[in-house]
Structure formats: structure tokens, C-alpha cells
Amino acid sequence: MSKFKFSVGPWNVHEGADAFGPPVRESIPLTEKIKKFKEIGFDAVQFHDDDVVPEMNDLSDAAIKQKAKEVKKVLKDNGLGAEFVAPRLWMDPRTIDGGFTSNDPKDRDFAQWRALRSIDIANELGCNKLVLWLAREGTLCYESKDPVLSVNRIIEAINKMLEYDKNIHVLIETKPNEPIDRSFCPTIGHAIALSNKTIDPDRVGALLESAHAILAGLDPANEIAFGLANKKLWSVHLNDQNGIKYDQDKTFGVENLRQAFNQIKVLVENNYGKNGEYVGLDVKAMRTQKIEDSYRHLYNSLKIAKILEDKANKFDYTFQKKCVEERNYEALEMYVLDLIMKG
Ligand code: XLS
Ligand code: MG
């Protein structure tokens, strides 16, 4: 029986478009996805603002809240919570050059409007977490933005969110690159430093995604540990990634099972979830999957996470201590691999 509560986003069941090709699967309606998430064994759903309120740019603030109420009912009917809302600031023509760091003040206003509406939506869904995946807050052409001013602009934007709602908690989801070349906030360390510059550091934390850490050339388990040590790890997006190339969002553990084990181990050891944090799975089905099997990666990720949790609970700390005392790390390494490999 897992001690974790698991969450997932509607974008994790997608139509299969990539940078080089169109969709290959039909869209599945949100209510159907929500029902299925429950059946698979999830506890909560993560949302982009426009997952909840499609075409929200054309709606009044009141209409946005009304639509969010309807989605809340669907969640309630299915016995699921909402974990967070994230403004989707990378799709709109107004955020081509970034949101909070755009060179155009009108675009920055639009980004701020979406962030505040996301807070409204979060309130209607009954959650107090806003995730900022700072997708385009960086540059394609290095000299196109002032990098110091840009960091300060992100801090100012977060301050406005904190002022707008005294309960909202802002989680920065870090990623070093893609869709931009260089990000202004690439790692968990950056997120924490940034949080400390805001008007209320206790309400600004981080979300670590495994693949994003790997893309930064870092170890995801140590990024998780750094967040935990700073009491700033308020969500995770577990998935996998084969080396430093395009963002793959693969099923958790399929590329590097030991690295996956160590992520789960550090979460287990630190009693992650004790303050209600969820283990999110930000995984995507391969483009080749047929529609009838487009949830398979979710089943598999959940299964692997739970098996690794079980293994982490069986970890023999007495043997580890002995190996450490003898400085016999070869023995310790083999023990870990045996633990992972044996049934
Ligand atoms: C990027 C995700 C993105 C965020 C939430 O990793 O797919 O959607 O997790 O905004
Ligand atoms: Mg993510």
C-alpha cells in the first residue's frame, strides 16, 4: 500500500503531435480523462488554466470562475482532488517572446492576467498551489533581453501573485532549455534563490521534474534532496529521459531504473507527502501508441513508482552502514542493484 498520493495532468493523455508532425490520436474529453484517472488509481488532477477553462481569453473573470466551478463538480463526482493550476503561457501569440520577461509591456500584462486568473481557478477548484513552468522566460537570441532585469521581472510578477491572494503558494517548475535556448531559472537552486527574493519566501517553492533535471545535466534525486533540505519541494513531476536531448517525458523508470529508485528513496526517507504534497507523474505516451492504449504509460509509471517505493522501504540500512564503515562501496552498489533487479 503506497504512502504517496499521486497526481496527473490532462496533457499527459495527448494527441501525439511533436515538433515534426501533426496529431495522430483523437482528443479525449476532459471528463472522460478524469474518470479514467480515478480508475487508474490517481488521487488528484493537475491543470493548466485553459484545461479547466478553454478559450479563457475571451471570457469575463466571472465566467471563468463559473466554468471552474463546473470542473470542480466533475472532480468531486469522481472523488478526485485538484493539486495545482498552471497558467499556460507558452501557447499564445502574446507570449512568443516570453510572458513575465517579454520585452513588450502589453505581453507582460497579459501574462500577469493569466497568472491571476489561474489563482481564481485554483480557488474554485479548492487548491492553493500555482505552478509556474517558465517555458519561454529566457532567450533564443542572448542579447535580446537584459538577463538581470529579466530575473527581477519574474520576482516582481510573483510578488503580484502573492499580493493578489494571501493563501496562494507559487511553485516554480524549473527547466534549463526548450522551448527557449537559455532559461533564466534553470534549476531548483535557482528557484530557491528566486523565492528568497520575493516578498513572502514561505509561499514560494519548487516543483522538480526528473527529465528537466537530466536536461540540465543534473541528478534528479539530488535536485529533489536539495529542495527537501530547503523545505521547498512542494511537488514533483516524475518521468524519465534518455540523456540530454529533446524533452521526452518518458514513463517513470524506463530509462534509468536506479536513478528512478533513488528519487523514490529520497522521497520515502524524508516522508514526502506529510504536508499533503502529491507525487505527480508528468509522462507522455509515445507518438506510436494507438488511441485505445493511450493511458498505458500512466498505468506503467504508477506501477513502477509503487514497486520502487516498496523496494525503498526494504532498503537494508544496517548493511549500508557496514559497507560505509568498511568503505566497501562496490558491495553497496551491488546490493542496490540486487535489490532493484530481484523480484
Ligand atoms: C512541462 C509540463 C508542463 C508543466 C506544467 O514539463 O508538461 O505542462 O509541467 O505547466
Ligand atoms: Mg512538468
Q: How would you describe the overall organization of this protein?
A:
The mean pLDDT is 98. Helix 1 links the parallel strand 1 and strand 2. The protein has one domain (6-313): Alpha-Beta Barrel (TIM Barrel), CATH 3.20.20. It is 43% helix and 13% strand. The strands form two sheets. The protein has an eight-stranded parallel beta sheet. It has a two-stranded antiparallel ribbon with strand order 5-7. The protein has helices spanning 30-40, 49-52, 61-77, 105-125, 147-164, 188-195, 210-215, 220-229, 257-269, 296-313, 317-326, 329-341, and strands spanning 6-8, 44-48, 81-86, 129-133, 138-139, 169-173, 182-183, 204-209, 233-238, 279-281. It binds D-xylose and magnesium ion.
Short description:
The chain has a single domain (6-313), classed as Divalent-metal-dependent TIM barrel enzymes (TIM Barrel), CATH 3.20.20.150. It is built from 12 helices and 10 strands. It has helices spanning 30-40, 49-52, 61-77, 105-125, 147-164, 188-195, 210-215, 220-229, 257-269, 296-313, 317-326, 329-341, and strands at residues 6-8, 44-48, 81-86, 129-133, 138-139, 169-173, 182-183, 204-209, 233-238, 279-281.
Looking at the overall shape, the CATH architecture is: Alpha-Beta Barrel
> Which regions have little confidence, pLDDT < 50, spanning 5+ residues?
none
Helical fraction equals: 40-55%
**Nearest-integer average pLDDT:** 98
Largest sheet: 8 strands, parallel
Class by helix and strand content? alpha/beta
N→C terminal distance: 17 Å
Family: Belongs to the xylose isomerase family.
Subcellular location: Cytoplasm
Domain Xylose isomerase-like TIM barrel: 35-249
GO molecular function, one term: metal ion binding
